[in-house]
Design goal:
The complex is a heterodimer.
Chain A (H helix, E strand, L loop, with lengths): L3 E2 H12 L3 E4 L16 H13 L4 E5 L15 E5 L10 E4 L5 H15 L3 E5 L1 H4 L2 E2 L17 H5 L4 H18 L22 E2 L6 H8 L3 E4 L3 H10 L6 E4 L16 H8 L5 E5 L4 H7 L2 E2 L2 H8 L5 E7 L15 E5 L54 H6 L4 E4 L2 E4 L9 H5 L7
Chain B lengths: L1 E8 L2 H17 L3 E6 L9 E8 L7 E6 L13 E2 L1 H4 L8 H13 L6 H9 L3 H11 L1
Parallel strand pairs in B: 1-4, 4-5
Antiparallel strand pairs in B: 1-3, 2-3
Helix pairs in contact in B: 3-5
The chains are: A alpha/beta, B alpha/beta.
């Protein structure tokens, strides 16, 4: 048997466990097209809680921290999978640091949610999301209830006592499944390759693992995870002596954006030094390679009030709230049409005009379409022959273009035919 | 001997296939295998995978950088690097260079056999890939 990818493991888990409601936060690194609902993380959480309250098995994927106020016990299992450590505690949280324990953590999460009637958050490390592991098939007893709701059950709010009782059920199940303790000198980090991490935490209940943490004379934690530890110390409360580890530097790779990324096109068309550019599209590449500030539209519009700087906001039309139009006077806005529904650009918004045409922008980061095929004329392809840096690669950041000897080659599988490279080639070599 | 293999590649399908085959090969060669990966920046950004294969109790590792698409920009890895540029191997839009580089890996790591990967490629009738893999692994 060959190892499976994380994506294959998750897909199998969803199928075997019989989840019938799902949600993926926009730009979550793994793509689940059926769960791409174009909702914010907050809206997605509420959608899944509603579905689980009426008895639908629900699963969501987030790269933001997950937090909510639970108003009703759920009738069916609800799992929130996220790559962010919690900023607050509301329900049991299970952590998965290594791919080898992924199957166990997934099955435990579903069992705890079923028994405790609470949603469960499963925090997975970056290493778990794109990894490989040899695992057996999942086996679940697939009893599915018929979802239903009525006023009486909705009005049955959770009392403090019953909530604590259900947290006790979760703690009992989790402490029976995991019994690892910490020792002095341990590195405790979710994303650092070395060391160990919590198996789980339950709000208001100090687990044996947390107690062992207090007994350590010194532990080492990652600088990027310090906020999480501070939150734990306040919540339980805990006294922990820790030293900070600086996060290890990664190998530097050539910058790459998605093919036809509208940001690459916009940046090739405007004098970017004149603008402060903002977006609510949570893509790390945009902030790293194009110095785009990732902020919400409402924040950007507020920031722009009565200031002299030129601000440009680029966002998806599906995520732009209509009432903002009335106050968006001091900011230029580009909205990307990311939906196939009839929603059009809002005519009242002051739109930034792009002068060149002939470029097809993808509708959505989650759904990049293929428009055609690009061909490069070897005779006209002159940048490398003249010892110049190739404009098509430098300005499009396209994954489909590669240097080979003194010409540029196109990878047909990755090329979407967006035309961006054609637009920036000074020698007219791209067809 | 212990090895720390750091792999980088853009062709996600081929990368996945090679990673799975390598992990199986290492495990079958009685190495203890650990993997660690990172989240790509976007849907097309390169995949990164670190495979630690442990064959001795010594706590030292020989580093090998497998750069399938000439993606690394820092030169620190130069001595331990396997890449199309380093092998003077032309980039293939079909991803054939991935198989050549994988083949080369079998020259660097002790006590592993290319038979499992050859068998799989033969069974799946991936003749071109097999030819490149064999050329560089033998």
């Amino acid at each position: 048997m060959l190892p499976k990818t994380s994506f294959e493991i998750i897909t199998e888990f969803i199928e075997q466990a019989g989840f019938n409601t799902g949600f993926t936060e926009i730009n979550f690194p793994l793509s689940f097209p059926d769960y791409d609902l174009r909702l914010s993380a907050f809206e997605g959480i509420n959608y899944l809680l509603g579905a689980a309250t009426s008895g639908n098995k629900s699963i969501g994927f987030f790269h933001s921290p997950v937090y909510f106020n639970l108003r009703n016990f759920i009738k069916s299992e609800c799992i929130f999978i996220t790559t962010s450590l919690p900023e607050n505690l509301c329900v049991p949280v299970i952590f998965c640091k290594n791919i080898v324990s992924f199957k166990n953590k997934l099955t435990t999460a579903i069992r705890v949610s079923e028994e405790s009637r609470l949603p469960v958050i499963l925090v997975i490390s970056e290493s778990v999301l794109f990894n490989y592991c040899e695992i057996d098939d999942f086996e679940f007893d697939n009893e599915r209830m018929t979802p239903n709701t009525d006023k009486r059950s909705l009005n049955m709010k959770i009392s403090a006592e019953s909530f604590l009782d259900n947290l006790d059920i979760a703690e009992a199940l989790l402490s029976a499944s995991f019994d690892n303790n910490f020792s002095s000198g341990d590195t405790i980090s979710l994303n650092n390759e070395r060391g160990t991490f919590f198996d789980y935490i339950v709000p208001n209940i100090k687990s044996p693992q947390l107690e062992s943490l207090e007994k350590c004379s010194e532990i080492f934690i990652s600088k990027s995870e310090e906020t999480f530890f501070k939150m734990l110390c306040l919540h339980y409360p805990l006294t922990v002596n820790y030293q900070l580890l600086t996060d290890e530097s990664e190998e530097e790779l050539v910058p790459i954006l998605c093919p036809g990324c509208p940001f690459a096109f916009i940046f090739s068309q405007i004098k970017t030094e004149d603008y402060l550019v903002f977006t609510d599209i949570k893509c790390t590449s945009l902030s790293r390679h194009l110095s785009v500030e990732i902020r919400e539209a409402d924040f950007t519009i507020g920031l722009a009030h009565n200031i002299k700087n030129k601000l440009l906001f680029i966002g998806n039309v599906s995520n732009f709230k209509y009432p903002l139009i009335n106050i968006a006077r001091d900011v230029e806005i580009i909205l990307l049409k990311d939906t196939d529904t009839a929603q059009e650009f809002y005519p009242e918004v002051k739109l930034h005009k792009l002068h060149k045409t002939g470029v097809t922008l993808p509708y959505s980061c989650n759904n990049i379409k293929k428009y055609g095929q690009t061909k490069i004329s070897p005779k006209k392809c002159k940048c490398l022959k003249k010892n110049e840096s190739p404009k098509c690669i430098d300005q499009s950041f396209c994954p489909a273009l590669f240097k080979s000897d003194d010409i540029i080659l196109v990878n047909d599988d990755l090329c979407t035919g967006c035309g961006l490279c054609k637009n920036v080639c000074p020698y007219g070599a791209v067809k | 001997m212990n090895y720390c293999i750091k792999m980088f590649g853009i062709h996600r399908k081929i990368f996945d296939k090679i990673a799975k085959l390598l992990l199986k090969t290492f495990a079958e060669s009685d190495y203890f295998v650990q993997t660690h990966s990172g989240v790509p920046e976007n849907y097309f950004a390169p995949l990164k995978l670190t495979i630690n294969i442990i064959g001795s109790q010594k706590n030292t590792f020989k580093y090998i950088f497998v750069d399938f698409d000439n993606l690394l920009t820092n030169s620190e890895a130069e001595n331990d690097l396997i890449s199309p540029q380093k092998l003077d191997f032309k980039y293939s839009p079909l991803g054939l260079h991935y198989w050549a580089i994988t083949g080369k890996l079998f020259h660097v790591i002790e006590d592993i056999s290319p038979a499992y990967i050859s068998g799989c490629l033969l069974e799946e009738k991936m003749e071109k890939e097999l030819a490149y893999f064999r050329k560089f692994s033998s």
